[in-house]
Amino acid sequence: MNPVEFIRKKRSGQTLSRKEMHDFISAYVTGEVPDYQMSAFLMAVYFSGMSREETAAFTDVMLHSGRVIDLSSVPGRKVDKHSTGGVGDKVSLILAPMVAACGVPVPMISGRGLGHTGGTLDKLESIPGFRTNLSIEEYQRVISETGLVLSGQTEEIAPADRKMYALRDVTATIESIPLIAGSIMSKKLAEGIDALVLDVKTGSGAFMQRYEESVELASALVSIGRAMGKETIGFVTRMNEPLGTAVGNWCEVVESVECLRGKKCPDLMEVTYVLGGAMVFLGGKASSIEEGMRTCESAVWSGRAYEKFLELVRVQGGEASYIENPGKYPKAAFSPRVESPASGYITGFDTRLIGVLATELGAGRMSVDDDIDPKAGILFKKKIGDHIEKGETLAMIQTDRPSRGRPWEERLAALISIGPEPPERTPLILSIVDGEGAKPWGGS
Questions:
Q1: Among 22, 26, 87, 293, which is disulfide-ready with 277 (CB 3.0 to 4.6 Å)?
Q2: Which residue is catalytic, options 39, 65, 183, 214?
Q3: How many domains does the chain have?
Q4: Which CA distances in Å does 147 have to 98, 165, 321, 323?
Q5: Is 427 domain-assigned?
């Protein structure tokens, strides 16, 4: 095959055949097609898009570039969840043990941070000793023992996506519906699931900032999942402020543990319970999403979800003492306080730039090879709609990096809007997307 002509064809907006995609992607996996040509193809897709048929073929090629895991020996319907990513989105850390505690097996292959958003693997690896690089045999053993597993991609699972995933992060080609759909579904369909729940973010902190684009992506993902014989439900959720109060890897683990132990964090737990309720419903342990939500709430308040998380940490090599006593974790060298410049109400966050700032603090990667500082992050003291007095604490910053130029706290304060009146309240969960299309979410 001729890579240049292949790229030129997509750049010109023409339709690619499954065989063409198979030949090009296979050559990329084996190293015959270099990163710079794959980058050109990704950019061509970003601008020219793909048809629904091309996207399905692209996903299938990515899926079968590696091994599809067999979990038929694990009893029950296996259900996973995927989020398109946001700032402070630590839902998976709470949701996976919660749903497993309800009796639904949860096989979850996660990714690392992309752009301004954090990654589940980076959060988990902030737990000393926690292993995410499980072999397929270890992956199968862990879910058989505990009812859940949180792992990264192995070389055998969708290797084409594993290589492209990092490349998209540094070539500004993340926000493409066909590329996102192919990446998500190739991993999810490879991990041995029977059903899937999707959390597609929209708003200032999401990759898809327009609601219509988020619905389009959710619909594409649901369509692919159902076409592949997997029951799939999607939700479009708002990401106009950090989810919860913590941004940064270890900071988010701590908040997740607090929520598993019953801490009230309304926005974070609303999303977690809805997604968990849908998973329990698809897993056959509830007759409706609403009943599944109540089952999930019981798993948290009884302590079973927290105990399940501790079990997972131990089985995957983590030091559970840090979960039981987070105060023993190393402290950041710098922890400046961000003061409110005025009195009033919190009216908004520039959530994407907050994610970028957290990355600069050390919580994310500016390039593929960057190291992450698990201690780095931001702890917010106020949410949208909260009242604040001038000089009161808006947030606390955690970092080992001294600021260059403007102090960290000045930069963060400039990303938070304060007004004289409280803003109008807007729903956090906007829509549910299933085989019948998108409709407003009216659950409770």
A1: 293
A2: 183
A3: 3
A4: 11, 28, 22, 20
A5: no
